[in-house]
């Protein structure tokens, strides 16, 4: 079970983000095509960043017992792209959620002012 | 390079993209207050979870290349990731979901159709085969390059063609009516933008991974993709040049693959590429014969409208024959591929005397030709496997 610990947490995190997304129709459940493109572009950009870091010798793979140990390329564990997808989803759920709350508050204020 | 410098570079790129995208989004620009809320939350989460992940030894940093400043266990440079994501992605989202533009789902569907999925393998296979046979291993460059020649390259080639052929296709009653797959004008600019956005990152990666030989091959390949149908260049309307550029579309991915893999350039390789090139020219020339009448009515030139049906068919026969004879000169087991020329010759030969007026009937042979390609692809693959095993 231990080697699947990190990957399992990431997949669970992704599932939670998607549940929030679905419940409040924030990202994929609002515009699947745009959300797909944002996720693909964001993940690809972060992977490039990782690749440049690996090529410069900055990033090293750890020896954690919580990782599967499967590597996609030198110093690039299987978990890394999954983490990047999670980071993108988490940011977009946070952003679209914050946008929703801010909009609602602004409309609420406008309504109260209209009544006064 | 230090981690600080690397992160600064990517962060600046992300911010620049965010500014451009926010401007492109127009009135639907990102809500910066929401960006700030999401950004602060992400930075806090990063401080906690990055420390946790580093504490669990999931990854590490080369000690000499990081500044040493840490928040918790996380190096400060790590915070550039969430910062870049929190600013750039909402801007991209805003640009993609803005109102008034074409529906994105419809654009992607159009792009998929425009990229001709049946033909994807025709460009990805030469690249992957050339690279794999040279390096004999599947690495990230092979995967990235194959993905590029599978989809974005075809989207560029056929997408640019569909956009700039719109005028002539629309003017041509037969084409516009029968094919019906005209790309509506409001999709032209978004499709060209999509072509740029999907091709540029891959090209930058391939250029960064290769040396001068790969740069030259990629330059030729990219030029051919644009020059075939882009305005002014319009290679497809210049007889003979049209067949040369068309064949370059299919041969250049193999050349790029060889160059990226650092394959030695010997006589055998040159002979094989030359044979492939002649085969591609023959394919284009023969394909143009069926369109002679509509092309002439629309005032479009091609190798077939200028040579006439009879001479073009004979030229294609000669090129296929030459391609078959050329591979006989290549090292074993390449000469086996000579047999591939035979079905093409048999398929095309009955039309060697077809008059221009009947040229549309060659469409029957053209449809058979497309099937033949799958058969030849199969035979060529078997020969490649044989080459793989015999050189082991």
What would the keywords be for this entry?
heterodimer; A: 116 residues; mainly alpha; two-stranded antiparallel sheet; 3 helices; 70% helix; B: 392 residues; 18 helices; membrane (chain B); Prenyltransferase_related (chain B); Prenyltransferase (chain B)
Describe this structure in words.
The complex is a heterodimer of chains A (116) and B (392). With 116 residues, chain A is mostly helical. Helix content of chain A is 70%, strand content 7%. Chain A has three helices and three strands. Chain A has a two-stranded antiparallel sheet with strand order 2-3. In chain A, a hairpin with a 2-residue loop joins strand 2 and strand 3. Chain A starts with a helix and ends with a helix. The mean pLDDT of chain A is 91. Chain B has a two-stranded antiparallel sheet. The two termini of chain B are 39 Å apart. Residues 176-180 of chain B have low confidence and may be disordered. By secondary structure, chain B is an all-alpha fold. The chains are: A mainly alpha (116), B mainly alpha (392). Chains A and B meet through helix 2, strand 1 and helix 3 of A and helix 1, helix 2, strand 1, helix 3 and helix 4 of B. Strand 1 of chain A pairs antiparallel with strand 1 of chain B.
- Helical amount among residues of chain B, as a percent range? over 70%
Mean pLDDT of chain A: 91
Q: Structural class, judged by helices and strands of chain A?
A: mainly alpha
Distance linking N and C termini of chain B: 39 Å
The number of E-state strands of chain A comes to 3
Biggest interface: A-B, 48 and 49 residues
